Structure formats: C-alpha cells, structure tokens
From TrEMBL:
<keyword id="KW-0489">Methyltransferase</keyword>
<keyword id="KW-0732">Signal</keyword>
<dbReference type="GO" id="GO:0008171">
    <property type="term" value="F:O-methyltransferase activity"/>
</dbReference>
<keyword id="KW-0808">Transferase</keyword>
<dbReference type="InterPro" id="IPR029063">
    <property type="entry name" value="SAM-dependent_MTases_sf"/>
</dbReference>
<keyword id="KW-0949">S-adenosyl-L-methionine</keyword>
<dbReference type="Pfam" id="PF01596">
    <property type="entry name" value="Methyltransf_3"/>
</dbReference>
<protein>
    <submittedName>
        <fullName>Putative O-methyltransferase</fullName>
    </submittedName>
</protein>
<dbReference type="GO" id="GO:0032259">
    <property type="term" value="P:methylation"/>
</dbReference>
<dbReference type="InterPro" id="IPR002935">
    <property type="entry name" value="SAM_O-MeTrfase"/>
</dbReference>
Length: 194
C-alpha cells in the first residue's frame, strides 16, 4: 500500500511537471489547487464533488489528495472536448480510479446526485453558484467543506459575486472564510444541519 502511494506520488508529480505550461482552459492557479488538496488531507475527506472539470487541473489535485484518504471524486463538465482532455489527463496522471468524470450539464445533474458529500469545489458557471450551493448543502455532512472559486470578500475577482459572498456569510449553519492567495476561494464549513 505504501509502495503504491509512493509510486503514485511520483507519477502525479511527473505528470504535473511535464504539463505545467499546458493549463489554458480557465484552470485554477496552483495556489488554489494546493489549498483544496490541503483541506482534503487535513480533514480526511473521502466523498468529493467538483462542479466544472474543464481539462482537469483542480480535479487532479483533489483526486491526488483522495488517493491518500481512500476517497473518490465525482466531477462534472458540460463541454465534450474539455471532458475528453480531462479523462485523458486523469489516465496519464495515474488517477483514473479515484475519479468518476461525468459529461453532463450540472444544472440538471447536480440536484439529482445522491450524496452524502464531505467536500465540494464549485467552479463552473458563476451565475448558477447559489443554485449549486442550495442543491448540495443539504447533502454535505456536518463537518464537511464547500469551497467556491473566484470568490473573495476583499478583492474584486471580476465575476460580480458580491451577493453570493453575502449569502454565504449570512448562513447560520456555515462558517465561511476566504483565501486570497490565488484567484479567491470561499471556504465554507458546515457547522450544523440547519
Ligand atoms: C473555470 S472552468 C473549471 C476549471 C477547473 N476546475 C480546473 O481548475 O481545471 C469552468 C468549467 O465549467 C464548465 N461549465 C460551465 N457551465 C457548466 C454546466 N452548466 N455544467 C457543467 N459544466 C459547466 C465549463 O465548460 C468550464 O470548462
């Protein structure tokens, strides 16, 4: 088991190094991907959901963490060509067995997902952020974490998400902080059921 983890680390690192200049499909900055990785490891999360795969950069970091916690990621992308690239990247990185990649419109898929989840990364269409949150929050376990990309309460991320920020901050059963080292990530921990 330990040998498998060491071999996988090597494979993922080699893949990330050799593809370092190829993430041009709205992929998150590395600082944000590392942040997601750290949150999953620290909390030993195992049931992850990502909305907005693109070509799979953040998924790779999430799945890499899940390979260490014994977890699995469901990730959703609506664009077929980016979905195909992502699936190819997952295979090359050696992470396919930790990822259930879905080609679908998240507007219709997400509300029907069964859950439960303990980690969520929301990074698809910004105007749907609140709908995604409302659909998934009840399926997030208490102690789970819902992260949202391109959101900050201090810097302007350019997406007009101020009302979403206020919405998150006012939720009684979530505690939200913001990480501005990359493109802005809202980190919302679920404190209680309601
Ligand atoms: C910012 S990119 C995701 C980047 C990715 N998380 C990464 O770091 O590599 C957003 C992606 O969400 C996808 N998307 C937008 N609307 C969607 C929808 N309704 N359902 C599924 N995917 C959607 C876009 O096609 C795009 O590839």
């Amino acid at each position: 088991q330990e040998n498998k983890a060491v071999a996988l680390d090597k494979k993922v690192k080699a893949f990330l190094n050799s593809h370092a200049r190829e993430w041009h499909d709205w992929n998150v900055p590395e600082a944000d991907a590392r942040l997601l990785y750290d949150i999953i490891i620290q909390n030993k999360y195992t049931k992850a959901l990502e909305i907005g795969t693109s070509t799979g950069f953040s998924s790779i970091w999430i799945a890499w963490a899940l390979s260490k916690t014994g977890g699995k990621l469901i990730t959703i992308e609506v664009d077929e060509s980016r979905y195909r690239k992502a699936v190819d990247n997952f295979r090359k990185a050696g992470l396919s067995e930790y990822i259930d990649a879905r080609l679908a419109n998240a507007h219709t898929l997400v509300p029907g997902l069964q859950g439960p989840f303990d980690f969520v990364f929301s990074d698809a269409d910004k105007e749907w952020y609140k709908n995604y949150f409302d659909a998934v929050a009840p399926k997030l376990i208490v102690g789970g974490c819902y992260t949202t990309h391109n959101v900050s309460d201090r810097m302007n991320t350019g997406f007009g998400l101020e009302s979403y920020v206020e919405y998150l901050k006012n939720l009684k059963n979530f505690e939200t902080t913001f990480d501005d080292r990359g493109a802005g990530v809202a980190i919302s921990y679920k404190k209680s059921g309601k």
